[in-house]
Amino acid sequence: MTVRRLSVLPGLAVLAALLAGCGIRATEVPTDYGPAPSRVRCSLAEPDVSSAAAGVPVRVFLLCGSSLVAVDRTVPVPDGATDSGRRVLVAQGLLDQLASPPSAAEKEAGYTTDVRRGTTAAGPRPGDPEDTLRLGTAPGDLTSYALAQIVCTFSDSAAAEGDRSVVLAGPTERPARRYVCTDEVRARPGSNEPPSTEVTDG
Between 144-155 and 83-99, two packed helices, what is the crossing angle to 10 degrees? Predict the structure, then answer.
């Protein structure tokens, strides 16, 4: 037993040397998987002064992660505008803000937008409810994210009646619909479109 045990030891030493020569040490292999992913904060460390401008203070809803998050903006509204004209001007200013690329600080925090540049707003046509806002793109043709951004932004502004809803229509003759910004829409705009009902009282 003792002789056999001693005769095996040199063989084990040789095998260990071979394995050490062919083995790969994890600490010596260069790896390049890119930088570690940054955590999406969805909040700004300090107010974003780059987007500050003279005008009416408003809030717009941008996308961050899978949710809508409000950020502060301002929209220009000339003095002397009528109530209906003011609503349209505020609505257009909000659309312009939604369609603008997020600032550097907002991008750093993970903000994006799905509203396209050139989206327009106009007042009601004859026969529409007086609080109707007609978009240049039919609401049904917008992405669920863009529609949620617009509905929640409008319903939280002077463009709406203050009940977290807004009456929208498109450029066609389709009747206007009242859209509501719900907690579910704000939490998951990609899978929860703003609920809406047709408005028949013109």
Answer: 140
Q: Which residues touch 159 (CB under 8 Å, ≥6 apart)?
A: 87, 90, 91, 94, 121, 133, 166
Q: How far is CA 114 from CA 100, 148, 149, 151, in A?
A: 10, 10, 8, 13
Are 140 and 170 in contact, with CB atoms under 8 Å apart?
yes
Whether the Cβ atoms of residue 120 and residue 112 lie closer than 8 Å to each other: no
Distance, CA of 147 to CA of 128 (rounded, Å): 20
Is the pLDDT at 39 greater than 50? The verdict is no
Mean pLDDT over 25-33 rounds to 42
DSSP code at position 80: T
**Structure confidence at residue 176 (pLDDT):** 95
> Which amino acid is present at 165?
S
pLDDT at 75 > cutoff 70: yes
Residue for token pair 């050490």 = 20
| Helix (H/G/I), strand (E/B), else coil: 179 | strand
User: Beta-carbon neighbour count of residue 67 at 10 Å?
Assistant: 16
Q: Which two tokens stand for residue 42?
A: 């969805």
Nearest to 53 by CA among 77, 73, 79: 73
Residue 144 one-letter amino acid: S
Q: Are strands 121-122 and 132-135 parallel, antiparallel or unpaired?
A: antiparallel
- Per-residue pLDDT, 50: 47
pLDDT tops 50 at residue 16: no
